[in-house]
Every structure is written in structure tokens, then in C-alpha cells.
UniProtKB/TrEMBL annotation, chain A:
Coiled coil: none annotated. The lineage of its organism: Bacteria, Bacillati, Actinomycetota, Thermoleophilia, Solirubrobacterales. The keyword Transport applies. It comes from Conexibacter stalactiti. Pfam families: BPD_transp_2. This is Urea ABC transporter permease subunit UrtB. NCBIfam families: urea_trans_UrtB (TIGR03409). It is found in: Cell membrane.
Automatic annotation (TrEMBL), chain C:
Keywords: Cell membrane, Membrane, Transmembrane, Transmembrane helix. This is Urea ABC transporter permease subunit UrtC. Pfam families: BPD_transp_2 (PF02653). It is found in: Cell membrane. Coiled coil: none annotated. It comes from the Bacteria. The chain crosses the membrane at residues 15-36, 48-77, 120-143, 150-169, 200-219, 246-267, 287-311, 323-342. InterPro entries: ABC_transp_permease, ABC_transptr_urea_perm_UrtC, LivM-like. The keyword Nucleus does not apply. The keyword Membrane applies. It comes from Conexibacter stalactiti. It is a multi-pass membrane protein.
Amino acid sequence: MDVFLSQLFIGLSVASVLLLVALGLTFTFGQMNVINMAHGEFVMAGAYTVYVLQTSVFSASMATLAFGLALPLAFLVGGVLGLILEFTLIRRLHGRPLDTLLVTWGVSLILQQVARDIFGAPNVQVKAPPFLDGGITLAGVSMPYTRLFIIGLVVVALVAIWFYLSKLPAGRRMRAVVQNRDLASASGVRTPRVDRLTFFIGSGLAGVAGVAVTLLGSIGPTLGTNYIIDAFLVVIVGGLGQLRGAIIAAIALGVANAYLEYWTDASLAKAAVFGLIVVFLQFRPQGLVVTRRRGLA
Amino acid sequence: MARLGLTRLLAILVAAIVAAAAIAGCGSSSSESDAETSGSTASADAGGETIRVGILHSLSGTMAISEVTVRDSELLAIEEINRAGGVLGKQIEPVIEDGASDWPTFAEKAQKLISEDRVAATFGGWTSASRKAMLPVFESNRALLFYPVQYEGLEQSPYIFYSGATTNQQIIPGLEYLKEQGARSLFLVGSDYVFPRTANKEIKAWAEANDVEILGEEYTPLGHTEYGTLISKLQDARPDAVFNTLNGDSNVAFFKQLKGAGVTARDMPVMSVSVAEEEVAGIGPENVAGHPVAWNYYQTTDTPENRRFVEAFRARYGADRVTSDPMEAGYVQVHIWALAAEKAGSTDPEKVKEAARGLTFDAPEGRVRVDDVNQHLFKTARIGVVEPDGQIREVWASDGPIAPDPYLRTYDWAEGL
Amino acid sequence: MSTLAKLFPARSGRAAFLVRFTLAAATLLLVAPALLNDFRLGLLARYLCLAIIAVGIGLAWGQGGMLVLGQGLFFGLGGYAMGMHMKLEEAAAQNLDVPDFMSWSGVESLPALWKPFESAAFAIAACVLIPMVVAALLGTLIFRQRVRGAYFAILSQAMAAAFVIVLIGQQGLTGGTNGLTNFQSFFGLRLADPADKRTLYLFVVAIFLGVFLIARQLVRSRYGKVLIACRDAEDRVRFLGYDPTLVKVVAYSAAAGMAGLAGALYVPVVGIMSPALLGVVPSIEMVIWVALGGRTVLAWAAAGAIIVSWARTDLSERFPSGWLYAQGALFILVIAFAPKGLAGVSEALQERIKTLWKRRTRTPEPAQERELEVVA
């Protein structure tokens, strides 16, 4: 088997998961400068959405339908959770990003315990749709359908976001607020409403990511904590609020991880990637893609 | 001087009231569950004295997944004993503490149970790290700990009873089963912590003596979720079998992605020592079906005691719950302590230790006996295969209980470990 | 302390501080040992170790504006330095070549990294100096590039995470997930002996008070003024001719040294040092203590560490399964609604009492303009 190609594929599939979790963060962290530590718990909520649909709403034979329906529904679940969080807490913490971090961490503690009380501490099980069983082999690289599905999902999400941001008026307003909040506000954009929408979409994307990770990993109360730090690193390396940066960063981190792990082992690879990030930020402290702005701060 | 506005003060006041209410709510719910655990006999011990025992497991954090289930079965055993009249004519009162998946917390809570609650014995722990953290506490206080989980061996504390399997009751039978099935080469996969690393050291020594080739040894951090690279290393190495000491969540990711990569149990059986019924349910039986596991007990183990245990457990906690090896060990160890205390006529740790020597108990897994010296249990080794319905079917069992040998002194190849 | 503060309003300055400090020291040194049993006194010693970290965070974050989310790294460096020495001392006492956990991992001869820790002087120096040097290096690299705010927070968090992964991976060298445990003695004090544990407690109190005084002096010095200026307007400080990188590195490094010292004391007090104490979650908790107590007031930062740790122990004993709700709710409510933490609450209460008092004696003053809140 061609090691180079197969590791490249593995790297890309790692990147796709990272990017899926980080996409929501490019909205909430990147655009609103809100460090939402509960983002991981929104991912968890998305994963439990599939579980609830499969066990309580649909019968076992409809697992595929339940999985399909879970994608939009998890977007809603994540989004609504995000809205609640925005409305009750984050709105009050405007301009205090570090406090937001601590508060949302408290929220994530509570959400984990809520999940533990509702669904029990043990992991639960989600049935993958049967058509995702197996995979194809191309040029000596075996590609599981689940991996391809997640890569596809990321591409669809990216296209949708691009369309939203560049073609729809609401997306343009969002960009305006990001680029200059005061000016946008002065031009008649209702910034609080845009903030709420941004947060809704970002958290919704976390929910969708939750559905995707059920194909690969465990579904339990601590699911979110497994992904959150890596996702933040993707956003930081990519540059705040930069979709393009996040894509490149996710791919770079995923592929670097895959090759390093192949040569060494998983623990060392992870530590080495962290090290590389620290070094990288020496050269590009603002991340890969930087929007130049005037003024200080 | 910055001054907090009246509204903010009000908010703080409301917050304090909400917090107080939340605490009161938790309090009432926990006292309810306490009342439940002490069962119908709560009124009986109102006048008389009770014997306190500690239950110390992680109820929060990453290990809660596994440890909560052991707590449940230990409480079940305490209820059974209380219903039958208690120990030494007194009711047992469990004092439950949360280890919070954090080893120093285990040590702190163990100290608290011993010096403040004055418990007669403590049942607790899961990870080796939590046991190692508690060990000095129990030794310096001369108090008893009952530890319910299979572990890596190479330990024999005079104040710990080990009711899970040691290496020669689980891992070595697992290896020998694989060899018997024709496996000539192995690949070792484990989480990066003490149990897998020590177990793999022993496995490598065994392999050398048995002409089995070790094609690779890989560790992943706890909570790792990406197994693509590891699986491609497995596919490159093409071992006859994989020996898996992954822990917790990682098993779910590993087996899901292994199946996704098209590797079946027929191509490459994965022998697991930390995957029991509870974990199978989380992984999804269809993802792990056909792979072998090594334990001392399965829910399907065919003994009258087990039928009673499973029935009682389901009646208490719900028909959808499964029982597993560590849960059974938790249940057994409470009974063993009670028997020993009864026999000693006292709950004094030294007397209980003395009385426990050679004690036998008809456990759900069959008859177990406490070793005279090392305070481990004689246990029957059982290899099982995961079925698509999530149960584990026994395919091989040792002839009767195996004597515990934590330092592998009876094995020539293990010299120098 | 709030009642004391009432008795001695802030304007009496140095004298008031001396009175408060003496009272706090007397409480810790005399009252607590008289009232608490051995177990609770041991817990208090642990909280005081954590309070030392909190003083450091109060310095770096409260005064310097650097949200240090990875103090676990420095706490661990100090703790492991001391733990290694104690392990070696024991191995020597038992005539073993290597500490017990190494022989489990198949390490036969002492690794070179451990050799210097045989010397007590080296170990004591190392548990403060190694964290300081590491922090100075990392800090110089990071601050020179003007990485700050959220970037710095997440970066420092990633460093703690990486450190933990390395510690766990090198089992033969560090004890892996188990960490270093099963200590018997600390420079002649037997850790199982209650009388020796009390001596250890007094020792911890003395160091805590000493660290607190040093930190306070640092904040009140001219350097402290520049540090606060860096927090509030880094660019203006640069334009004035100061080098903000250097100013921030000093505070960061001092905070790291305090965390290292705390780690070194934690090992004999608790008897364990493991990666579980150093990762992302414990590191965030350290910051939470300070946020809860009041980030800009050193004494309240330390008090926050003690109060939160005490509440955690107490709540988890009473409600083993429900205490996470209480803990989470506490964090959210205090940080969201009382940004100055308990320090702010206490101050507001004093103000209120004062105005009520004044209202009774004479007509109210015109409302004062609200001071700008500190934006970290």
C-alpha cells in the first residue's frame, strides 16, 4: 500500500472532522471574538440528537431516515442552545472575551452533568446508516464511506457558508459587522440581531459536527472535550474569522498529525503538533490569513 | 471606588438564592437516594448503631462512564446484606464519595472516609492510577480497600483486597487462547497509561517464550479519537491478531473506525481486556461482533448465583441494564468483606484480614476463594466472543479457578519483570 | 476579612494592611491549628498551596492582563522537581538503585535527567528556577510577537496539554498517568506522622505569607505601575519608551515561579504529583479561583483559591453526584454578574453600609461617577 497516499487520505479525513467542529468556532470565536468553551457540548448535543431520534422517535428499521433527519435537527438543537446562551449570558459579557471563556466553561460543566443525568454516564450507541458500511479502494488507498461522507459534509457546509456570506444580504451584514462594528451600526445594521444570528449559525454547525462524529467515535457526556482544544487551535492558526485560513489550517494540522503519527506514535505526534503551532505563531502571530486593519489593538 | 449598582446587587442576591435552592434540591434528592439504598430497614437502624463503609468511585469526569456501574452493584450488595440482617447484627450504611476521575481526589476522599467517617472498609477505584494514589493512604492508616477491577499485577499491598483479575487470570489465558487458535504474530494496541504499558511488557516476555512474534506496539493518549493512522499501521503489519488494552472511549473510536476500514474479526481478531458488556453497548454490538474478549464473568455465565444476580440488578436498576465483570467483582467484594467481618466477629481491619484468608464465596462467576497470602481471588478465566445482540458468548473457560499470581512467580519467562 | 475591612477602611493605608495581615497570619498560624483536626488541617495546607498559585495568577492576569490558562505546566515542573528528589531520597534509604515505579516500567539504571535531583539544594532551587526560566523563554517568544488576549490564553492552554501528553508518554521517566506517589518523608518529616504534618502545615503557611508579601511589594513598586499600564494600554507604554515584552515576561515568570513553588509544597502535603493535576481542566480551575475571588486584589485572589477548593470539597462530600451543578452555577453567576469577584461584592457591601451610615448622619453626597471597569 502506498503509505504516502494513504496517510494523505487519513490526514484529510482527520482534517475534515477538525474543520467541521472548527467551522462553528470561526463564526462565534472568529467573528464575534467569543471564546465559547461550551462549543464542545453543542457538538455533544448534536450527537445525542441522533441517539434520541433513533431510539425514541423512530423504530430500529428507520435508522437511516433518523440519521438523515438528525442533520437538520441537530443544526436546530445546537443553534437554539447557542441562542439561549447568547441571550442569557454572552450578550452581557460583550467586550470581556476572557470572562466569556470562563463563564462558558461553567456552562459546559453544567451541560455535561445534564447529559449525564438524562442519558446516563455510559456511552450510548448510534447506528450508522447501512449504506455507509464498507468503503472503496482507489490507487491502493482504502477509503471508508464514513470518512468520505464526512469529507462530503464539510464541502457542502463550506459551500453553504460561502453562499450565505457572499450572496445573501444577511451574510453581507454579518461581514460588515465583523469588519467594523461601529461603522456597520452607524449604517443602520442592527448589530445585536446580527450577533444572535451569527451565534445561532455557529452553534448549529457544532450540532451538525456532532452528528458526523457519531460515525467515528463514542457518544457520551464528555464527547465535546475530546475535540474542543484542537478546534480552537485550528481557528487560531487559521486566523480569526477566516474561513480560508481555517480550511488551510485544518488540512495542515490533520495531514501533519497523520504523517507524524505514522513515523512516531500518537502521543508524540500530538505533542509535536502543539510544538509546531507555538513555533508557527512566532512567525505569524495573527494566524495564516490576516485582515489588515488600521489602528492599534 | 467602583460601586456595584442596585440591580447588580439584586442579581447577586437572586443568584445566591438560586444556588441555595439548587443545593437544597441536590440535598433532598441525595437524601432520597440514601433512603432508597438503606431500603425498607431504615427504621430498624434508627435506634441501633450502623456500620459505615465507604464507596469511592468517580461519579463525574471521564471515568464516570465505567465507575458509576460498579457503584450500583456495590450498593445492590449492601442492600441484599442489610435485608438479610446486616453484618454482626448491624445495618451497613454506605458513605458515597466522588473520586471525580482525578487521582489526588481519590487519595483525599479515602483519607476523609477513614479519618472522619471512620468506615470499616472502603470499596472503590477503577484505574490503576487511582489505586496507586490510594495505596499509601490505606497502608499508613491500616485501613482496608477492596478494589474491583482487573489490573496489571506486580502489586500486593497488605491492606488491599484485589477482587478483579490479575494478569495470570485474564491476560495470559487470553494470549494462550489466541495461540491455540493459531495466532503466530501479535500487534499490541493500548491507551497511554500504566496498565497497558505494564501488561504489554508482560505480554512481550510471554511472546518471546512462546515463539509468537510481536509486530508492533502502539499507544494512544486517553480520550484519543482518531485511529486512521493506527489502523493503517495494523494493515501494513498484518498480524494474526491484535491485543487491545485501550481504555474507555477510545475503544468506541477504535472499533468503529476498524470496521469502517473493512477489517473484520475474521481477518484480524482483536482480543480486548477492557471491553465488557457495558462497553459493547456503547461501541455498538455490530461494530465489535465476532471479536474475542477475556474476562472472568459474563452476563451469560451460567450459574444459579448469576441468574439471581442479573435478576436482582435489573429489578433494582431497570431491565435495560447489563451486568459486566467489574460490576460483578464489585458485588462480590462487598459480600466477601461482610462474610469475613461476620467470621471475625469484628470489623477491625486486622481481624477481617485474618478471617478472610481462604474464605470462599459462591459468586455469580462461580466459586471464588481469597488467597491466603496475596489477598487476590482465585478466579476462573473465561474467553468470550461478542455477539451481534451485545451479549458475550463464552467459548473457552479454564478448568476451575486459577490461583492468583500477581508477580507471575510460577512462570519461568516472567523472571526479571 | 470583610468585617475587618469594615473596621479599617482603606484610607488608613499601611497601618490597616499591617493589622489585616497580622490577623490573617494569626488565624492561619494559631487559630486554624487549634480548631481543625489533622485531616482538615491537611486540606487547609493543600488549599494554601493552591492559594500560592492564585497569588501568581493574580499578578500575571489581574495586574498584567495575561490570562494564564496553562499554569498547570509550571505547577507540574515544580512538583515533579520536588517529587523526583523525594523519590530518590527514599530509594537511597531503601538501598534501591531506582525509585519503585521505574523498576515496574523496566528502567534499571537511573536516567541522566534524574541524577542532579539527588542533591537537595539542586531540587529546591530547581522547583522555583526551572518554571521561571521556562516561563521567561516562552514568554519572550510569545510576547515579543505581541500575541495576547485570547490567543495567548489558548496558546498557554495548549502548552499545558502538550506537557501532560509528554509526561504520560514517558512512563519510565515520570511515572506516566500514575505520576509520582507513595512518598514517606520530606526532609526528615515523616508524612504519616500527625505531629510532623502539623509542622509541615506551619511551614506552608510561612511560605504562603512570604510569597504574598513579595507579590504585594511587586505590585506596589514602580514596576507594578508599569505592569498595570501594560495591561490597560500596552501600546501607550511602548510609546513612552518602556519595553512591554520585558515587563510582561517578568510578571509571567514570577507567576510561574510561584506556581512551581506551590507544586513543590503540594507534593509533601498531598503525597502525590500526577498529570491529572496539570492538564487543561485543572489549569482553567486555577484561573476560576482568581476570577471568583477578585482578579485585581491579591488577597482576594488567594482567598478565592481557598474558598473554591473548600467549597468543592464540602459540596462533593454532601452531594457526591450533584455538586457539579453547584460548581458550574457558582462560576457562571459570579463571573457574569460580579466581574470583580468576591472582592467587588465585599467592596460594594462596605459602600452600602457606609452610605446608610452617612444618610443617617447627614444629607447624601452627589453620586460618584463610576470608575471604568477593568477589561482584561
